[in-house]
Structures are given as C-alpha cells and as structure tokens.
Design brief:
Layout (H helix, E strand, L loop, with lengths): L16 H8 L3 H14 L8 E4 L6 H8 L3 E6 L2 H13 L5 E4 L12 E6 L9 H13 L1 E10 L4 H13 L10 H9 L3 E8 L7 E8 L4
Parallel strand pairs: 1-2, 1-4, 2-3, 4-5
Antiparallel strand pairs: 5-7, 6-7
Length: 217
C-alpha cells in the first residue's frame, strides 16, 4: 500500500502500476495474516459507518472493510492504485469513494470518519517529523478511531536489522518506530492507545495500534 507527500522533504514511495501489481500478487498466507491482524484490532462498528483506508494501495483492506458492511472511502497518491481499487470495489458490488490525493493533505472535513486505518505506510518514512505529520492528518479526519500499523524495533526482525546496520553500515529500507513515539504523537491529537497487536508475537516486526479519541470532560 503506497502513498507519499508532495512535499520535497518527504521520502518518495512508489505508487505505480508495477507496485500495485506486486501487492495484488501478495502471498495468500501473508494476506490472510494481515487481514486477521486488522480483524483482531478493529473496533466493532455498526453497518453503514464511514471508514477510511489510507492509503489503499491494491484495495485489499478496502475490500475487507466493504465486506463488514461499512461505507468505505479510500485514497492513494498513485493513479494506478486508485483506478485498481475503484474497479475492484465496483466489481465486488461496493459503492466506495476512491480518490487520488496526498495523504498528508486529505480532502475530507475534520472528524468525517468513524474510523481511519493506515496500513503498511508509516515504515516508509525515516523522519520523525514526517511520521508526526502523517499521524496528525489521520487524527484530523477521524471522529473516534485511528489504526496505524508500524514496524517495532523490539522484535527479532527489528533486532536483526539493527545489528546488520551497526555491523555492516547499511540501513534497511523499512524504518522502525517505537510505540512510545506513536503514543506521544497521538496524545497531542487527543487520542489514547486502546490496543496494540502483533502479527506474529516477538518474532514479527509488524504491529497494528488502535487509538481512540479521548472523551472531553
């Protein structure tokens, strides 16, 4: 699932037809594991609630959301991803809103969605300020829930990558984020951590954090 900001200081992430095709060919077992992670972490929402898949990539998560009975919106910077997701949702009978755009500057009003999910994007950004800007925009358009996937450094995979970097001098292209960073950034937006789930225990780096907007006193 790929997206990027138009700002020149932010890292470029591929979002072309080849990348979309690669996500479409994702191994079935890996796809099932990732959707199971979302299912375990996603809050229970009534049918018809507005939800956002940002970025949508090849539409895997958008399709899962549609099957839960929710009103799905999706966005991606890449025209190929948008076209594919739009066609996929229509083919499966879902009337989804799929728009091309910058995830750092989304077109929806504040608190437009009941829940926003950002899956497999944060690890593309090495700069903490860029990650903070992403989190801020995701929180802006959500009225209640934000789910963000990240790669934890405190996993077997994360430790191995860190050792390779320290010993070999070559940093892995996927960036790891501490949970504490996400919790602090979301707190500034009025959200608190509800649940943090792992795809594969301490061995797998991929985690999905569910944040809920803190009720006003």
């Amino acid at each position: 699932m790929n997206n990027l900001s138009t700002a020149p200081s932010r890292e470029r992430v591929k979002s072309d037809p080849q990348s979309v095709a690669a996500y479409r060919r994702r191994k079935p077992a890996k796809h099932r594991a990732e959707m199971a992670l979302v299912a375990r972490t996603m809050p229970v929402l009534p049918a018809g609630e507005r939800v956002l898949d940002a970025p949508c990539g090849a539409g895997r998560l958008s399709l899962w959301m549609g099957r839960q009975g929710w009103r799905v919106s999706a966005t991606d910077l890449g025209a190929a991803a948008v076209e594919h997701t739009r066609a996929l949702m229509a083919e499966k009978g879902f009337d989804a809103e799929v728009v091309e755009g910058d995830i750092f500057h989304m077109p929806w009003a504040d608190r437009h969605f009941r829940a926003v999910v950002c899956f497999r994007l944060l690890h593309h950004f090495a700069d903490a300020d860029t990650r903070r800007a992403l989190v801020t925009e995701l929180a802006r358009v959500s009225s209640e829930h934000v789910l963000i996937s990240y790669l934890t450094p405190w996993s077997l995979t994360g430790v191995r990558r860190w050792l390779r970097w320290r010993l070999g001098g070559r940093r892995h292209r996927q960036n790891h984020t501490r949970q504490a960073e996400l919790v602090a950034d979301m707190a500034t937006q009025g959200f608190t951590l509800v649940r943090d789930a792992s795809q594969g225990g301490c061995f797998h780096a991929l985690r999905l954090a569910h944040f809920a907007r803190t009720p006003r006193k």
